[in-house]
Model the fold of this input.
Amino acid sequence: MPSRATAYTHAKRDKGLCQNCVEPRVPGKSKCQRHLDYFANFMKAKRARLKARVFEHYGAVCACCGLGDRRFLSVDHKNNDGGERRKISGPASIQRYNDVIRRGFPDDIQILCFNCNFGRAQNSGVCPHKEMV
Done:
């Protein structure tokens, strides 16, 4: 038998109401537009805080080319095991940042710009910048 809270939530859903208030929910969603916007903004801010924490630890500069614009920076796995890590931590960036923090900022992580990160992925783990020298 479902709990009273579960029964209440299901009754609201069946009436087409938001699970968090009494406003009509967006078709195909469980929340009204106000709550969808609120949770989207909440998660965006949380992701930004976690990313800032990771970048503070590793430095907000590309370890290869020195680019310092955070809009172009990403987390890179030095051992080229990012795919395996995503299977463990999850695909969302917020999960990956949490994984890095939870593991105590391991040495197998570095900050690279997207060009260097993609270049390593396409060139057997070596950034094309390194071959140009």
User: Anything to note?
Assistant: Strands lie at 73-77, 109-113. Residues 26 and 76 are 37 Å apart (CA to CA).
